[in-house]
Every structure is written in C-alpha cells, then in structure tokens.
C-alpha cells in the first residue's frame, strides 16, 4: 500500500470518527483538506527533487557516453596515424568513461523508476484529494441539515411550554370571557325590554277590556 493511499484511508477514518463525535464537521473537514493540500505540496517538492536527481544522472551518463564515443574515434585516428601508444591511452580512457557511463546509466534507471512511482503516487493523492473535496461538499450539506433539524427539534420540544404560547392561551381566555360577558349583557337587556313591552301591552289590554266591559254592563242595565 502506498504512502498516499494510507494517508487517504486515514483521512476517511478520521472523517467518520469526526462525524460520530458530532463536533464541528465543517471546520474539521476544511482542516483535513488543508492538511491534504500541504501533504500534496510536500510530495510535489519531493517528486521535483527526485526528477532533478534523475536528470542529473541522465546528464552524467550522456556526458560519459559521449566521451566513450569520442575516445573511440580518437583511438582509431591515432592508429591510422601510427600512434598506437596514443591510441592505447585513448582506449584506456574510453574504458574508464564506459565504466562511468554504465554506473551513471544504472543510477539513472534506478532513480527514474523511483521518480515514476512517486509521480504515480502523487497523481493518486491528487485524485484522492479531489474526491475528498467532493465528499466534503456533501458532508457539509448533511451536517448543516442535521444541525437545522436539531435546532427545530429543540424548539419543538419546548414549543407547548414556552411563555409565548401560554400568553396566547391566557389572552384567548380573556377574549372568550369578554365575549361571554358582552353576550350576557345583550340577553339581559333584551329580556328587560321584552318584559316592559309585555307589561305595557298588558296594561293597555286591560284598559280596553275594562272600557268595553263597562259599556256592556251599562247596556244590559238600561234594558232592564
């Protein structure tokens, strides 16, 4: 398992633990991403240094190999000129440079392979970072939704017990009482008015009957 893969696994585990503890997920997720970005920056620096090492060995190899070819050409020219002693010295220096070239090439291949692995791991780390950024957006939305739900739950748990609702209920009772009193007053006044009217009508009715009865009595009396 690569270093960057382990880092990614650790970050995922830490995020899950964070959500379980119900701390401040938004701030902590942002901190995790900042930590990942710093790790990526450090990894990029390390990869750049490794690539520089590779290029240095490559340049040394090419320089030594160029000298090998040069000494080979010079040795041949010396032989053609009858200077075998000089050709021998050129060949000895060619062999030394060939040894250097072989060593530089071996180092070049070794460090190039390391650099290639580091570049792949750096790519994996950047991909993991982008995935975590996407997950962060979703987790932040979930955390905010959970926080909002908790706030609503807290409010609703005491909604029927707070002073505002109790005050409304008291005011409603007062309004009902006022309405009842007003209605009672209307009924009492209506009842009193009806009684007066009935008594007045009764008095008027009695007076007419008395007059009529008196008339009839007098009429009967006159016939006798």
Automatic annotation (TrEMBL):
<feature type="coiled-coil region">
    <location>
        <begin position="108"/>
        <end position="181"/>
    </location>
</feature>
<protein>
    <submittedName>
        <fullName>Phage shock protein A, PspA</fullName>
    </submittedName>
</protein>
<dbReference type="Pfam" id="PF04012">
    <property type="entry name" value="PspA_IM30"/>
</dbReference>
<comment type="similarity">
    <text>Belongs to the PspA/Vipp/IM30 family.</text>
</comment>
<feature type="coiled-coil region">
    <location>
        <begin position="26"/>
        <end position="74"/>
    </location>
</feature>
<dbReference type="InterPro" id="IPR007157">
    <property type="entry name" value="PspA_VIPP1"/>
</dbReference>
<keyword id="KW-0175">Coiled coil</keyword>
């Amino acid at each position: 398992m690569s270093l960057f893969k382990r880092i990614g696994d650790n970050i995922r585990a830490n995020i899950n633990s964070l959500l379980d503890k119900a701390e401040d997920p938004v701030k902590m997720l942002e901190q995790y991403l900042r930590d990942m970005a710093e790790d990526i920056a450090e990894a990029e620096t390390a990869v750049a240094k490794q690539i520089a090492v590779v290029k240095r060995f490559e340049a040394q190899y090419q320089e030594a190999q160029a000298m090998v070819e040069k000494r080979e050409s010079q040795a041949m020219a010396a032989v053609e000129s009858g200077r075998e002693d000089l050709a021998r010295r050129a060949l000895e220096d060619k062999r030394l440079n060939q040894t250097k070239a072989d060593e530089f090439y071996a180092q070049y291949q070794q460090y190039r392979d390391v650099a290639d692995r580091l570049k792949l791991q750096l790519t994996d780390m950047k991909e993991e970072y982008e995935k975590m950024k996407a997950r962060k957006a979703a987790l932040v939305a979930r955390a905010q939704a959970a926080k909002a739900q908790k706030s609503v739950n807290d409010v609703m748990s005491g909604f029927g017990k707070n002073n505002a609702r109790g005050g409304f209920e008291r005011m409603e009772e007062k309004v009902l009482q006022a309405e009842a009193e007003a209605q009672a007053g209307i009924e009492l006044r209506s009842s009193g008015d009806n009684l007066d009217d009935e008594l007045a009508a009764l008095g008027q009715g009695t007076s007419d009957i008395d007059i009529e009865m008196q008339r009839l009595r007098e009429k009967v009396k006159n016939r006798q």
